[in-house]
Amino acid sequence: MQVARTMVQTRGYNGLSFRELAKEVGIKSASIHYHFPTKGDLGAALAKRYTEDGQEYLEGLRTRSDDLRVWMKGYTDIFRLALVNDNRMCLCGIMSAEFDDLPPEVRTEVEAFNSLNVRWLSEVLSVCRPQLNQEERQQQALAIYAAVEGAQLIARGRDDISVFDQTIETYRSMGLLP
After folding, report:
1. In this predicted model, what pLDDT tens digit does every residue of 122-152 receive, in sequence order?
2. pTM of the full predicted structure?
3. What CA dihedral angle connects 25, 152, 95 and 139, to 10 degrees?
4. Which residues lie below 8 Å from residue 71, measured CB to CB, with a gap of 6+?
5. What residue ranges do the domains of the chain occupy?
6. For residues 98 and 95, what is the distance between their CA atoms, to the nearest angstrom?
7. Degrees (nearest 5) of the Cα angle 72, 78, 80?
8. In the CATH hierarchy, which fold is given to the domain comprising 39-174?
């Protein structure tokens, strides 16, 4: 699963190959097919695990601290970490770019990741911007999520982590990020 995740984060869903995955892991392709009959099954399992890991991470941010700045820094840091780690993308972010090519089961899991991020950010906004109604929080949460994913994408395309850092700092100074 880790090798497949790395493949998708660097090459996208369309770059995921059972043959290359088997070669990298040192097993036969049939062994992978035994556990994941289709590429869609493997992609859905990857996105689901990524979402579960993300949920655990985000819940941990709020459990370990009451400081909003710690929450938001931790949030942006996880996207930054993917870039630091061989200039990778968020797994579900890169899959979202290929959404039309994804099988339905993968789309469902990618949408779950997107929803997780918007829901978590909306909860954070309810703390720091209590004057917003639920719809306004949802819209701002989606804008924040899209902005952070976009900053990651542009930084990756330039192979320059400082682009991400500068963009996130600009978002903070302009008030997009709490």
Report:
1. 999 999 999 999 999 999 999 999 999 999 9
2. 0.94
3. 150
4. 61, 62, 65, 124
5. 39-174
6. 5
7. 100
8. Tetracycline Repressor; domain 2 (1.10.357)
